[in-house]
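Deliverable D2.4 — example input (structure tokens):
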């Protein structure tokens, strides 16, 4: 079995306790490490929704670190929060003011490394983002076919809000999305 950061030796996965995990605001020096985890988790969540060759075009991780993160996080009020254990990035949340209503929090991305999913880390990152902006509703877009993400947000109290969007990452490629909202008034 090839080495990866999650394996101590073949057949034994490296266990990380909740007390070993910290969450903090990322800095530009974190972007390359974040992108490696984010891109892998993103590809996994989009498998079956967008064809793999198209996912390749939207990457690689280095482009995210060099272009996408600085552009997104250069907007007023936008922030990237990360969860980490030691030198390993385990999850990321990217949030900021909603363009349609700056009084609302827009959740642009929330991804957790595959081996750390279903251990409460996504909820921890979501809670950190919501706590940092405690007033106003929280909104997000979710691909119609991304059942796993939709179940996660619904369990966290988000509900469909009637908005729809066809995301067009490349000419001629449309991915239907639905809007979710967490009412916090």
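Example output (designed residues):
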């Amino acid at each position: 079995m090839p080495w990866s950061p999650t394996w101590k030796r073949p057949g034994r996965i490296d266990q990380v306790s909740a007390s070993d995990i910290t969450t903090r605001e990322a800095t530009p020096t974190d972007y390359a490490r974040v992108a490696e985890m984010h891109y892998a988790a993103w590809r996994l969540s989009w498998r079956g929704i967008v064809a793999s060759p198209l996912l390749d075009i939207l990457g690689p991780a280095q482009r995210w670190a060099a272009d996408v993160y600085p552009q997104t996080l250069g907007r007023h009020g936008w922030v990237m929060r990360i969860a980490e254990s030691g030198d390993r990035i385990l999850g990321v949340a990217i949030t900021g003011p909603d363009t349609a209503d700056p009084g609302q929090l827009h959740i642009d991305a929330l991804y957790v490394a595959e081996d750390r999913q279903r251990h409460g880390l996504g909820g921890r990152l979501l809670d950190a983002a919501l706590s940092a902006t405690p007033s106003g509703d929280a909104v997000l877009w979710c691909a119609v076919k991304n059942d796993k993400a939709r179940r996660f947000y619904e369990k966290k109290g988000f509900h469909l809000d009637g908005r729809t969007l066809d995301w067009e990452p490349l000419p001629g490629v449309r991915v239907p999305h639905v809007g979710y909202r967490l009412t916090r008034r």
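The longest strand covers residues 159-170.
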